[in-house]
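Structure (tokenized):
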């Protein structure tokens, strides 16, 4: 029962924080994109960019602080972080759709992140990653509930890190369009799906054999 209580409040937290994040974007778009968000993106002054980057870092820190207060074991914290991040990201887009009627569709391009350089991709891509994170994180927490913990091998950890790096690379490649003040016109699907299938497949295999 304690696990489901924790998951419930993590979900509530993720949804509430997604609204806060979406509201900030609403304000920014009203200022920089009064006619609606579109590429090429408006390059804000350096001070504003720094503020935005620090805000992104603060968001990640707040999430980690939250799961650290809820769980003691590192594995459980990481799993809860995955769940929290996924819920936050999914509902972020839900709230933007409700408030701004954006994105127009799952294929709409979005500026996803700024660290260490712009991440760009169609909306469906981060949502797919988020769904995978929620599933994997929940599965780990369900196992941890019985004081049973996964023993991830170094090989598995490296495979997941490499898969994550490939997914990130698929966002960074079209991100160059932001730097060059251009419009992204191609998403490297082969990189994204290679990274996602490799990472998610390896986790499902670990789950089945543990």
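Design, position by position:
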């Amino acid at each position: 029962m304690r696990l489901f209580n924790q998951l419930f409040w993590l979900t509530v937290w993720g949804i509430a924080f997604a609204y806060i994040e979406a509201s900030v974007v609403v304000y920014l778009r009203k200022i920089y994109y009064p006619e609606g968000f579109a590429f090429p993106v408006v390059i804000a002054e350096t001070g504003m960019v720094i503020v935005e980057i620090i805000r992104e870092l603060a968001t990640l820190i707040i999430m980690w602080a939250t799961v650290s207060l809820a769980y003691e074991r590192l594995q459980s914290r990481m799993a809860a972080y995955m769940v929290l991040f996924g819920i936050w990201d999914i509902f972020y887009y839900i709230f933007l759709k409700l408030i701004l009627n954006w994105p127009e569709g799952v294929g709409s391009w979005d500026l996803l992140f700024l660290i260490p350089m712009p991440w760009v991709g169609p909306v469906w891509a981060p949502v797919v990653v988020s769904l995978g994170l929620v599933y994997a994180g929940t599965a780990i927490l369900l196992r941890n509930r019985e004081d049973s913990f996964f023993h991830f091998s170094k090989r598995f950890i490296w495979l997941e890190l490499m898969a994550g790096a490939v997914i990130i690379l698929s966002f960074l490649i079209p991100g160059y369009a932001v730097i060059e003040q251009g419009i992204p016109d191609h998403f490297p699907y082969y990189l994204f799906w290679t990274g996602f299938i490799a990472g998610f497949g390896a986790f499902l295999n670990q789950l089945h054999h543990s």
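Reviewer-requested clarification: The first strand starts at residue 109 and ends at 113. Residues 97 and 103 are 6 Å apart (CA to CA).
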